[in-house]
Amino acid sequence: MKTKLLYVIVSDESDIYLEQGYVSMFSAKMHMPECHITILTDVKTSSSFKGIRKEEIKYADEIVEVPLDSFLPAQKRSRILKTNARNYVDGDFLFIDCDTIVIRDLSNIDDETSILCACWDSHSDFAHNPYRNICLRDTKKMGVDISKETEFFNSGVIYVKDNTFTRDFYRHWHENYLKGYDKGVSMDQPSLEVTNIELKHPIQKLEPEWNCELKHGIKYLKDAYIVHYLCTNPSRSNDQQFFLLNEKDVFLEIKKTAVIPSKIIEVIKDPFKGIAEVTHCFAGKEIYFFRTQTYLFFIKQFLEKDNDMTMERLFSMYSSFKRKCLSIIKSFKTILLQCFMTIL
Asked: For the whole model, what pTM was predicted?
């Protein structure tokens, strides 16, 4: 495989980002022992690569360190590196977010003819993207109306050839990210979209199997190259996550010894084994309900101790009352109709 695999890692002892990257790099080497892995990081993070944390970067063939202000928030440092990665790293690369696992050989990416490509966010056109309103809100803060756009790309996996244009694209993306950050937009995807528009839509669509966003792309899991389990938005306040690697305790276990447990290795071999035993799939308009504040309010109340049955009883009482009211109205209509017929 000629294309480099690129990871951006900004981390310290208090988080699990290095552990996530470690698992992803392990999965890549498991399927492609000879692949070249590059870690792009800042000096503050690289200085923490000691002891067990040094063991967790053993699969990296190259580490590129960038001196950034150590007082900047970790999230901002991470996205500064990510949005300007093309100008820090030489050679064609496939950028991969840390919250991923590689589940098959990626060598086919060497045959990609596009100079810049990514998958659609949430595996949908922009009109049906469940995060559409958030995307519209963030880009509006940046002074750009994207309501008529048909595509919105996920930045979790990006293939980038090394040439003058892609380096210029990343410079623009970086500048737009910083401008957006100053306006309250901390995510990097809105600035990616704005940059794509400004530079006449150079991003080409990558097949969904290259970035299988697990919660939105189950249909692509069987043939996926990379599974993106989306650690940034696991189920809130749940007793069990949808996917094994959404469970933080799994990475806390790795943090202690740098040993990747057999249950994770099994999931890398067969990602279906990582899905919770009891699940419920949704489609259509129900998907959008789970993005509303109404849902978040009710699920929080339901999951609160002693509130679950209280809420259920209230809704049962409401449903029963509604049925009785409808029955009374129906009976009343029947009586009125009979009276009317009698008069006639």
From this structure: 0.85
